[in-house]
Design a protein that fits this description.
Blueprint: H1 3-20, H2 29-42, E1 85-88, E2 101-102, E3 106-110, E4 116-123, H3 143-151, H4 155-165, E5 190-196, E6 207-215, E7 220-227, E8 230-238, E9 245-251, E10 257-264, E11 270-274, E12 277-283, E13 294-304, E14 307-310, E15 314-320, E16 322-331, H5 345-357, H6 361-376, E17 380-384, H7 412-421, H8 427-443, E18 469-470, H9 474-478, H10 492-513, E19 523-524, H11 536-539, H12 544-559, H13 562-582, E20 584-585, E21 592-593, E22 597-598, E23 604-605, E24 611-612, E25 614-615, H14 619-639, H15 643-653, E26 675-676, H16 702-715, H17 721-733, H18 737-747, E27 763-764, E28 770-771, H19 778-791, E29 792-793, E30 800-801, E31 811-819, E32 823-830, E33 833-841, E34 845-850, E35 857-862, E36 868-870, E37 876-881, E38 886-892
Antiparallel strand pairs: 1-6, 2-3, 3-4, 4-5, 5-10, 6-7, 7-8, 8-9, 9-16, 10-15, 11-12, 12-13, 13-16, 14-15, 17-31, 18-19, 20-21, 22-25, 23-24, 23-26, 27-28, 29-30, 31-32, 32-33, 33-38, 34-37, 35-36, 35-38
Length: about 900
């Protein structure tokens, strides 16, 4: 290598380092030049080193250069030296190891391959199937016979009759394989295939310093490596400001980039080159005439130097200095108007691409980060006191860090494995919490669709369980962290989806139950499906509509937004009307119950030894309806309307079955104390009133709380991913931090299982996706909510600090978590006890804080108004704050 080339290479390294340090901008070249001179004198090249890992099939060599990937100062989300994120020392060999990017609509998952890279592409609205009438018009005539059999305890006969007469019309969800039936499936948009030509035989490629990462506070991924003395860098993001996918490639030696791009998907696509644009388009199967949803994907390249090369179905560049790829994509799905089609979707994709090409890459990047951080930076979390001593570890002073040496020297996949053996890496739970918030922000936004079973990310046309919306916990769990983790705006797509179920749900209620109001069963999709499932053993559950109404209410409870309450009231009232007009009296006590229904996906043994799932009034139904009636009653008072309806639901609520405790001390799952067919079943449905409901509390109903504890002990600490996440939340509500942490540790157990395991396969994939298995995102969101629940609770009408703090998190702090009543809370704790907290009102209201145990002195005072000293602490501290005001409480022990 010549002297001139060595100088250029060294200068490039320094320039790139400064850019990542945030000190280099094009308008400040003089300042940067002075810095470069200083760095040269200081001899900083010695600080670089490498992991020395390579892509499978490539030959590793001893590394001399460390490539620092994507490590700008990350603000509240991380430190300048080690930001909050994921990183790996080799390309992804499975999809569940590639990192997810998303802007609420478009998704991208690059695998970081060296010779060939695949980027899986997604659009949140791309579904097969279509609007259908799945209500069987003859079903209602069998309702009385089914109810009579159930009331006589002949559940097996009732279930047999339902299989013949009381299911959906047609194939339903296709038994979870509905891609080619009217129900449809959420599908992969396509694959962006990239081929890299380094000018040498691929068999002889040797890589140095390979690293790929995902920096959460920037919502950006990076990939860096060295081949033959040339340093290659890649940056990827799904633009939050421009609504396109952007990839940037650079090399330290001019003319070193030769890249070819292609687009495809497993079926229903056509790829062409039109001018300088690579296009992929197609139409999915709607399950009837084949004329389903249409999509249009466009790709443009903007190289610096080199030559554009066009093929029949590929486009590329040869010998470029750098390259930026812009990709736009749209479908003709009309969000919230699913019976219509967006005729202008092709022009929209073109307009998005033109707008992106009109801006510089630097501007696109900075605008994207600014928009994303406005959401991500609303919450910070730091868990100190663990600390994992590892050679080469760095101290992280930012969000999600331990004090002292950390496990950041380990790639994320190895970090997961280390955590199983030694859970002292407190940065990992903090990372997992913020990763859940990251996934939520990336998988939905107002005006679009809520996250489905896969969130936004799918790599097949037949996504597991159709990638749909399950109403017997999964879509609800997807929204558990939205309010406490300070992302209330992400409730808007959920509201719109539920609103779209009301009209079809009214028809379903009338046809099947001869009832008023509206109903939805265990599954739905983007086409407004509300009919029962094809199998009564799971598809008869009719409390799905009641459960999703509870989530709508939670948004009001956290925000106190009266305008929002006005919007949701008709939805809540319609759901209550269904249960009022469809419940019947059971024979033993005369209680009002649902009939027929299920306790979600669980079965029991009858006295005759036969197995059944269909029943009357399962415990979870009673809990959900009681909560729904309570919310509707409160809404009528707040909105000063429907007094007669209020009296009607009050009367019905008094006749609902109470929570019952079995002789063995467990909370009963059914009206009768049936024997379970699967004692360790993944669903813990009777625990709903503990979490996410709030009818059962440790202090208010200690006997019922103990019965839930016995139920959880009986179910065990294993399960599927989302089941483990639910148990984390339940143990947090039981104020048992160590047990909650034990379940969280199980949730973070590494898994590589891709098949269907409905019993005990739950865990976490290398990219931190939750494994049901297979991948299902609700466990990520449930785990995120569980960590928040361990740190802050407000379901009892007051704020409880650190209600379930495990011993392994003795010190820490959080900023921006939210509580019911409309406030943000910051807190700092030492030795397991809160040192201070700040209440920041988002609306006018009275806020009550439960005082920590062992408190001797409380110092409280608003900014600028001095301090109030309390020598004799009280049990609770109450304060009224106007919107925008805050108060700090300082605790002494």
């Amino acid at each position: 290598m010549g002297i001139k080339e060595m100088k250029y290479k060294r200068l490039y390294r320094y320039t790139r380092l400064c850019r990542y340090m945030g000190l280099l901008r094009y308008e400040r070249l003089l300042r940067a030049g002075i810095l470069l001179l200083f760095l040269t004198i200081a001899g900083l090249p010695g600080i670089f080193r490498s992991t020395g890992q390579t892509e499978p099939g490539a030959t590793p060599v001893r590394s001399r250069t460390k490539i620092v990937a994507g490590l700008p100062k990350s603000g509240p989300g991380g430190s300048a030296r080690q930001p909050l994120g994921l990183w790996y020392s080799e390309p992804a060999t499975i999809w569940e190891a590639s990192v997810p990017l998303g802007n609420g609509r478009l998704g991208a998952m690059p695998d970081g391959g060296i010779v060939k890279e695949n980027v899986v592409l997604n659009d949140i609205s791309l579904w097969s199937g279509g609007v259908q009438d799945a209500d069987d018009p003859h079903a209602g005539q069998y309702l009385d016979s089914i109810r009579s059999l159930l009331n006589q305890g002949r559940n097996d006969e009732a279930q047999e009759l339902m299989y013949k007469s009381f299911v959906c019309k047609g194939p339903g969800s296709g038994q979870g394989q509905g891609a080619d039936v009217p129900y449809g499936s959420y599908q992969i948009l396509g694959n962006l295939h990239l081929s890299f030509d380094y000018g040498i035989d691929t068999a002889g490629i040797k890589t140095e310093g390979y690293r790929r990462d995902l920096v959460l506070p920037d919502a950006m991924a990076h990939c860096l490596y060295n081949i033959g003395g040339v340093e290659y860098t890649r940056e990827y993001f799904t633009s939050f400001s421009g609504d396109v996918i952007i990839l940037r490639f650079t090399a330290s030696r001019p003319g070193s980039l030769t890249i070819t791009a292609g687009l495809n998907r497993p079926e229903h696509y056509r790829t062409v080159v039109s001018g300088e644009e690579l296009q992929m388009s197609g139409q999915l199967n709607n399950g009837t005439d084949g004329q389903g949803m249409q999509y249009m994907t466009r790709l443009r390249m903007r190289p610096e130097g080199g030559t554009l090369v066009k093929g029949d179905s590929t486009i590329g560049v040869k010998n470029a200095n750098s390259l930026t790829i812009f990709l736009s994509s749209t479908t003709d799905y009309a969000v919230n108007e699913f019976r219509n089609r967006d005729a202008g979707f092709r022009e929209r994709s073109s307009a998005l691409l033109r707008a992106a090409l009109a801006k510089s890459y630097a501007l696109q990047r900075s605008e994207h980060i600014k928009v994303f951080r406005a959401l991500f930076d609303r919450v910070a979390l730091r868990l100190d006191g663990g600390g994992k001593q590892l050679p080469g570890s760095e101290t992280d002073t930012g969000n999600g860090a331990n004090a002292g040496k950390m496990a950041y020297a380990l790639p994320t996949n190895e970090r997961l494995m280390a955590f199983v053996k030694d859970p002292s890496d407190n940065g990992l739970p903090a990372l997992y919490f913020q990763y859940g918030r990251y996934l939520a922000i990336c998988s939905t936004r107002p005006g679009l669709l809520p996250p489905n079973l896969q969130g936004l990310w799918a790599n097949t046309v037949q996504t597991p369980w159709n990638g749909d919306y399950h109403l017997d916990i999964n879509i609800q769990m997807n929204h558990w962290p939205v309010e406490p983790a300070n992302l209330p705006m992400l409730n808007a797509p959920y509201y719109e989806l539920v609103k779209g179920l009301v009209e079809p749900g009214e028809r379903t209620a009338k046809i099947y139950y001869r009832a008023g109001g509206w109903v939805a069963h265990p599954i739905t999709n983007v086409w407004g499906y509300t009919s029962p499932g094809e199998y009564p053993s799971w598809g008869a559950t009719n409390s799905g509509s009641g459960w999703i109404c509870n989530d709508l209410w939670e948004h009001y409870a956290f925000t106190k937004d009266r305008g929002y309450l006005e919007k949701i009231y008709p939805i809540l009232k319609g759901s209550a009307e269904f249960y009022l007009s469809s419940m019947v009296r059971e024979r033993s006590h005369g209680w009002l119950v649902t009939s027929p229904s299920n306790s979600p996906e669980n079965a029991f043994l009858l006295p005759n030894g036969k197995e059944a799932s269909v029943c009357m009034g399962p415990t979870i139904d009673n809990q959900l309806i009681r909560a729904l009636f309570m919310h509707v009653e409160e809404a009528t008072r707040l909105l000063d309307r429907d007094e007669a309806f209020r009296l009607e639901i009050q009367k019905a609520a008094a006749q609902l079955p109470p929570n019952q405790i079995a002789p063995d001390g467990r909370l009963m799952e059914w009206l009768e104390n049936y024997k379970e067919t699967e004692p360790h079943h993944r669903h813990i449905s009777p625990a709903w009133a503990l979490f996410p409901g709030n009818d059962i509390t440790v202090s208010g109903t200690p006997d019922l709380a103990a019965a839930v504890r016995a139920l959880l002990d009986g179910r065990g600490d294993q399960g599927t991913g989302w089941s483990l996440a639910w148990k984390v939340n339940c143990w947090a509500r039981l104020q048992d931090g160590n047990r909650a942490f034990s379940l969280l540790r199980n949730l973070l157990k590494p898994t590589f299982e891709k098949g269907y395991n409905m019993v005990d396969g739950g865990g976490t994939y290398p990219n931190l996706f939750c494994g049901h298995p297979p991948y299902q995102i609700d466990g990520n969101f449930g785990g995120c909510a569980g960590i928040a629940e361990m740190l802050l609770q407000s379901q009892e009408g007051f704020i409880r600090l650190l209600p379930a703090l495990p011993d392994t998190w003795p010190d820490g702090s959080f900023r921006g978590l939210c509580v019911r009543g409309g406030a943000e809370v910051d807190a700092v704790w030492k030795g397991g006890r809160p040192v201070s907290c700040t209440i920041r009102a988002k609306t006018d209201g009275q806020f009550v804080v439960k005082m920590p145990a062992g408190l001797k002195d409380l110092h409280a005072g608003r900014k600028g108004s001095g301090k109030i000293n309390r020598e004799k602490p009280v049990e609770k501290w109450s304060l009224f704050l106007h919107k925008g005001e805050e108060e700090q409480l300082v605790f002494s022990y």
